[in-house]
Amino acid sequence: METTLPLYIATIGFSEIVLLLFFLAVPVGLWLWALLDLLSSEFENGSNKVVWLMAITFLPVLGALLYLLIGRNQKVTSLPQQ
Predict the structure, then answer these.
(1) How far is it, in rounded angstroms, from Cα 38 to Cα 29?
(2) What are the structural domain ranges in the chain?
(3) Residue 43 carries which DSSP code?
(4) pLDDT digits (tens, 9 = 90+) for 18-42
(5) Residue 75's beta-bridge partner residues?
């Protein structure tokens, strides 16, 4: 007796696109934002930058969130020159 499996051909609808954006584009955008902000910033202690780079690289979403919430406050701010 021969059995046949039904073919399932799916099309991507609006809800799937929204889910893809939420689960792929948002984390990647958050990761890129944190990475670019980190690389363009200066820190008082050079090891802080390395630690944040490792956190963002090895724990992409969690590291990026932690950097954006905590790490941005550790950056050196320049005072306006008079």
Answers:
(1) 14
(2) 14-74
(3) B
(4) 888 888 888 999 999 999 999 999 9
(5) 43
Place of tokens 């889910």: 19
User: Cβ(68)–Cβ(32) under 8 Å?
Assistant: no
Tell how far CA 32 is from the center of its chain. Answer: 5
Question: Is 46 in a helix, a strand, or coil?
Answer: helix
DSSP label at residue 59: S
pLDDT-based confidence at residue 66 (cuts at 50, 70, 90): very high
Alpha helices (runs of H) in 1-82, residue ranges in sequence order: 14-20, 26-39, 46-58, 60-69
What is the model's pTM? 0.72
Do 35 and 64 meet the contact criterion of CB atoms below 8 Å apart? yes
Side chain identity, residue 21: L
Helix (H) / strand (E) element for 68: namely: helix 60-69
- Side-chain-facing half-sphere of 2: CA atoms under 13 Å: 2
